[in-house]
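Task: fold both queries, return C-alpha cells.
Query 1:
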Amino acid sequence: MARKHGGREEEERYKPRNSVKGQVLADFIAEFSPRATSITCVVEVRPWRVFVDGASNVAGAGVGIVVITPEDLKLEHSFRLGFRASNNEAEYEALLAGLRVVMDLGARKVEVYSDSFLVVSQVQGNFEANDPRMIEYLRLAKQMMGNFETVKIERIARRQNRHTDSLATLASSIVDEVPRLIRVKLVPEPSIAAKALILQVTEAKRY
C-alpha cells in the first residue's frame, strides 16, 4: 500500500509477524557466529626472576642462586668455586651461573637481582670496567645476556638478598666430605678462562 506524504509518495511495507521474528533470529546468528578471520590472543608472559650473590673468604669462594619461575616455583643452587676469586669476581661468577641455569631451563625473559654495586653498574653501563679480569667478565656477561629475548638487571639491598647470600656462603665454606641436603656444584675454573670462553661461544651459536 502506498500513501502520499509531504508531496512525495512513500511506500509502506508490512511484513508478517513470523517474518520479523525470523529476521531478528537471522541477524542474531550472523552477529555471534564465528567468522573466517582469525582472533589473536595476547598472553602476557611473566619473566624468570634470578637472585644471585657471590661470596669470597679465607676458606674459599662460592655462588648462591635463587631462581623463581613464572609459575612462582623456587629453585635453589649453590656453586663452589674451585679457584681463588676476589669478591667482585665471585659476584660476576654468580651472575654468569644464574644466566646459565635459566638458559638451560629455556627462559627467554629474565630479571636478575644482585646486591653488587660494581657488577650491576658495569652491566648497566654506568661504570666502566678497567681491570682486565673485570673487562673479560663484563664482556662474557653481555655475550650471555644476548641469548635471551630480554634481560633486566637491578641492584637490591643486601638485606633483600640474605637467602642467596646464605647459599653463597655455604658453598664458599663447604667441605667435600660433609654431606649436605642442598646440592652444591663445583665451578672448576673461572668463567673467563679459555675453555669456558670456547664453551660459551659454542652455546651462543646454538640459540
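Query 1 returned. Query 2:
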Amino acid sequence: MLEKLELNTMPNLEKWTISVEEEEEADVDDEEEEEEDNNNLHLLSSMFPRLKDLSLEDCGKLRRVPMLSAWVIQHLTSLHNLEIKGLEGLVSLPDCPAPATLEELYIEKCSSLVRLPDCFFENLNSLSEFQIWSCHKFASLPEGIRHLITLKHLQINDCQGLTTLPEGLGSLSSLQVLKIGNCSDLSSLPQGIQHLTALKTLHIWASPVLKALPEGLGSLSSLEELEIQYCSDLSSLPQGIQHLSALRTLVISGCSGLKTLPKGLGNLSSLQVLEIRSCFDFSSLPQGIQHLTALKTLNILGCPVLETLPEGLGSLSSLEELEIQDCCNLSFLPEGIQHLTTLKKLGILECPGLKTLPKGLGSLLSLEELEIEGCCNLSSLPEGIQHLTALKKLIISECLHLKKLPEGLESLSSLFEAFQISDCSCLRASPDGLGDLDSDYSCYRASSDGRGDLDSDYSRYRASIDGLSDLDSDGVIEFSD
C-alpha cells in the first residue's frame, strides 16, 4: 500500500482527473469533467488507506486537487504529514475536519489562499507543527486553532495580509516555539498569549506597525529565548518582562523607536545573552543591569544616541564577552569595567566619541581577545594593559589619533593568535622592549608605498621592530603565528 505521495515541480500540470476506466476520445467540458471527478472521489479515498505523507509542491497551474477535497481528505485516516507549496490557485483548505492522525502541516507560497476553515482544525489532536509561509492574501488564523492542544511549533512568515491573531492562540497549552515574521500589517498580539505557559522560544520580526507587546508577556514562565527584530513602531517593552525567570537570551534588533529597557530588567536571574542592535533612539541601559549575575554575553551595536553605560556594568560577575560597536556618542566606559574578572573577549569598534579607556583595563586577568577599531579620537591605551597575561589576540586598527603604545607590551608572552596594529596614522614610536617578544612571531615592516614586506631576518625568531618611528603613516605592524 502506498504510504507517500509527492507531486513536485510540475509547473505545466493543469488537471488531475480521476479515471476508473479507459477513456474514449470525446469532447468533455470542464463542468462535466468536474462532475465525473466528484462522482469518483469515493473511489480515490479508498485507494490510499495507509497514506502517511502527502506533498504537493510547485504545481502552479493545477486548478483542481482531488486529494484536497473534503470527501477525500477526511478519509485519509493514516495521514501524518501534509505539505502544500506553490499551489497558486488554492483559495482555502476543505471545509471539513482534517484527519486526527495529522502531525505536521506546511503551507507555503499559495498566493490565492485567503482562509483556513475553523472545522479543519477541530479534530487535530496529534498536530505538533504548523507553518504557513508567503501566503500574501491570507488574512487571519481561524479561532479553531484553539483545538490544537498538542501543537509545539507554530510559525507564520511573510503573510502580508495578516492583521491580527486570534485570542484562541492562548489555548495552545503545549506550544513551545512561536515565530511570527514579515507580517507588515500585524498591529497587535492577542492578550491570550500570556497563557502559553509551555512557550520556550518567541521570535517576532519585521512587523513595522506593531506598537506594543502584551503586558501579560511576563507570565510566560517557561520562556527561554525572546527575539524582537525590525519592529520600528515598538517604543517600549512591557514592564512585566522582569518576571521571565527562565529567560536566557534577549535580543532586540532594528527597533528604531525603542528608547530604553524596563527598569526591572535586573530581575532576569537566568539571562545569559543580552543584545541590543540597531536601535537608533536607544539612549540608556537601566541601572538594574548590575543584577544580571548570570549574564555571559553583552552586545550593544548601532545605538548612536547612547552616551554612557551604567557604572554597575562592573558587577556582571559572569560576563565573558562584551562588544560595543557603532555607538558614536558614547563618550566613556565606566571604570567599574575593571571588575569583570571573567571577561574573555572585549571589542570596542567604531566609537569615535571615546577618547580614553578605563585605567583599570589591566585588571581583566581572564581577557583573551582585545579588539579596538575605528575609535578615531582615542589618543592612548591604559598603561596597565601589560598585565593582561591571558591575552592571545590584540588588534588595534583605525585609531587615527593614537600616538603611542603603552610600555610593557613585551611582557604579553601569551600573544600567539594575533597581534595587529594598522591604520593608526599618528603612531610613531614603539615602547621600549617590544623587540623582546617571543620568537614565534613574524615582524612585518611597512615599505614607503604602504606594502608590508616580511623581513627574513626576523621571521620565526625573536622579533625586533627598531625603526618603527620611521614608518610611513600607512604603516602596519602585524604579528601572527
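Both queries returned. Flag for query 2: The mean pLDDT is 84.
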